[in-house]
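Input structure tokens:
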């Protein structure tokens, strides 16, 4: 069982949601990927306007109309537009088919505007997925680090969260969230260097490590290689490839009759 935590419509060469989903599924099928978590649309603005937020979520809803058996949707929110974001959460998650929240670059997750979003997600057991990065050249305005996510998690100690990309610089990222027991890491989006998965399992335990690809920005194959080529046990490998994400999502999937 392989569930891919981290997929986008971009770079699949189609011009519509439907064309890109067909290409995503066909490529993933060749590698045995069973489920795809999708979020963001075609407009990748770092600080999206209310209309851009709605458009991005509408694109995901279009995909779910046809491929709900293969895809899970996360609602894309921008805390700089908090009231709109809470309405979008209700539209897409509470009253719609989505099961998680995607937070990207617009506002660092240490800020108080994140709290109402986390609380709304916690009430429905929706997954919180926060992009993080630790750039040596400096992060974008509003871009969170793994250290920032640890601060947010401390304010919401009962809420599981996912550290997107493990901050890119994964040796720093793993250490930054090590003492936050409900933060899991996402393997997606960095180069498939040796040792990433092994360090994550050693420092966090296999239960807190989740496979994701960041496709179509990255290839499924190279990102799967981080797990398939890692020097870990087969039981640990199966947890990372799908069992951990399924466990995290089981409460909301069950409530929605999707599992």
């Amino acid at each position: 069982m392989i569930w891919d935590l981290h997929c986008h419509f971009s770079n699949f060469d189609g011009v519509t949601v439907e064309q890109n989903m067909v290409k995503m599924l066909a490529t993933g099928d060749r590698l045995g990927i069973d489920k795809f978590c999708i979020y963001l649309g075609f407009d990748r603005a770092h600080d999206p306007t209310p209309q851009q937020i709605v458009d991005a979520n509408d694109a995901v809803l279009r995909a779910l109309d046809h491929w709900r058996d293969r895809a899970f949707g996360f609602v894309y929110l921008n805390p700089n537009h908090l009231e709109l974001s809470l309405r979008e959460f209700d539209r897409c998650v509470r009253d719609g088919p989505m099961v998680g929240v995607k937070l990207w670059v617009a506002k660092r997750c240490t800020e108080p505007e994140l709290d109402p979003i986390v609380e709304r997600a916690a009430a429905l057991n929706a997954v919180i997925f926060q992009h993080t990065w630790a750039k040596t050249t400096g992060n974008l305005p509003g871009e969170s680090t793994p250290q920032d996510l640890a601060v947010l998690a401390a304010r919401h100690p009962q809420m599981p969260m996912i550290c997107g990309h493990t901050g890119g610089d994964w040796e720093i990222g793993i250490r930054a969230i090590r003492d936050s027991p409900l933060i899991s890491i996402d393997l997606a989006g960095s180069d498939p260097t040796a040792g990433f998965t092994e360090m994550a399992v050693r420092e966090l335990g296999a239960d807190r490590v989740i496979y994701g690809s960041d496709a179509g920005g990255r290839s499924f194959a190279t990102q799967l290689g981080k797990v398939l080529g890692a020097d870990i046990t087969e039981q640990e490998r199966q947890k990372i490839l799908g069992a951990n994400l399924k466990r995290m999502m089981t409460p909301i999937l069950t409530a929605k009759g999707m599992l």
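The chain has a mean pLDDT of 96. The chain has one domain: 3-255.
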